[in-house]
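Notes from the 1:1 (GR / supervisor)

We went over the backlog. Supervisor wanted to see one worked example end to end before approving the batch request, so GR pasted a single chain during the call. The sequence is below; no edits were made to it. Supervisor asked that the structure be written out right there so they could see what the output format looks like.
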Amino acid sequence: MKRITYLSAIVIVTIIVTVSSCSSKRQPGKVYMPDMAYSRAYETYAEHDSAKFTTDIADAGHKIYYNSQPVNGTVKRGELFPYTVPNDSNGLLNLSNLVKNPLPPLSKADSAEAGRLFNINCAVCHGAKGEANGPVAAKIGGVKSIIALSPTYSDGRIFHVMEYGQNNMGSYASQLDRKQRWMIVQYIRTLEPKKEATATAAKPDSAIVKK
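Structure output shown during the call:
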């Protein structure tokens, strides 16, 4: 008899729990660990309640510390590894020359995209063909001809200049991600005078054998 009573009680409790949990789809059951079930996602540049959040690490014990920066040592999905050559004379003149372009030769579509990025970010000063004749070159002053310098620069050194800037040129690390900058390096190579044409132009007329 007692056994039947216990079984009946269990069945009744099960029915009550089932009915109560399914009574309303708008009011689901309790979540044991809500922070694990529903992560608190934040937009990078969204404003946060200053009464709850702080960007001051010294105030992290009293409020939620959040500085909108990626975790140190992490790389976003699809991004190339960080460029670690220091911004000094040794980095510019020596170490950058050891860095190889990590991208394979650009496809036709990627080359067109690299040209678009060059025209947006570089041509305004350096000109569409890298000849230092962009629309604002005269106003800025000191703009260098890319195609005059690039044959003597390694891929790594060109990238280094875009990473940190040089002379009147500022850094483009915030405007272009690493892949885009390496794409532009390859595009610059296509602007350089062809070696065969340069060699022919350098020969004096007397050196050309007439048939």
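Supervisor's comment: DSSP finds ten helices and two strands in the chain.
Batch request approved.
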